[in-house]
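Sequence only, no structure available. Ideas?
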Amino acid sequence: MDEQRKPEGIVLTEAQKRSRRHRSIAIALALGILVVLFFAVTMVKGPTVLVRPV
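Reply:
I predicted one. Tokens follow.
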């Protein structure tokens, strides 16, 4: 029962793991900047952003 387990699926190299990590960080930063931008625009517009014309 002490069989050596083989990894299932695709095994990434260290370079691919680094590349994936850098890409994930870049996506997270872009998303964070977008959230901050939307928040800033909402604050600049003020509470009138919630008032809809009739």
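The helical segments are 14-45.
Hope that gets you unstuck.
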